[in-house]
Amino acid sequence: MREDLDLSRAEWRTSSFSGSNGQCVQVAFLGEHVAVRDSKDAEGPVLVFTPGEWKAFAGGVRLGEFEIPAS
């Protein structure tokens, strides 16, 4: 995580697909950064991406690039 990034005002979003247990990743859009954390460990590590990196990742998810190969 970037040490100089202030996450105290981050508005964390949880996927509507997470179910009732709320165990999933959360995302916060912070202007020039996109932060991602594990909802089960809100005080734990945070991954930080640029908007371009996040857009590329989200596009890959939509295109199925991260599907687990059939064995």
List keywords for this structure.
71 residues, alpha+beta, four-stranded antiparallel beta sheet, 23% strand, globular
Question: Describe it for me?
Answer:
With 71 residues, the chain is an alpha+beta fold. The chain has 1 helix and 4 strands, in the order E-E-E-E-H. It has one domain. The protein has a 4-stranded antiparallel sheet. The radius of gyration is 13 Å and the shape is globular.
The overall pLDDT, averaged over residues, is 87
How many structurally independent domains?
A: 1
Poorly predicted tracts of residues: none
Outline type: globular
Summarize the main sheet: 4 strands, antiparallel
Terminal-residue CA separation = 35 Å
Summing up helix and strand content along with how strands pair, one would put the structural category as: alpha+beta
Instruction: Please work out how many helical segments DSSP would assign.
Output: 1
Radius of gyration: 13 Å
Strand content: 15-25%
* DSSP helix fraction: 10-25%
Count of beta strands? 4
Order of helices and strands: EEEEH
In what order do the strands lie side by side in the largest sheet? 1-2-3-4
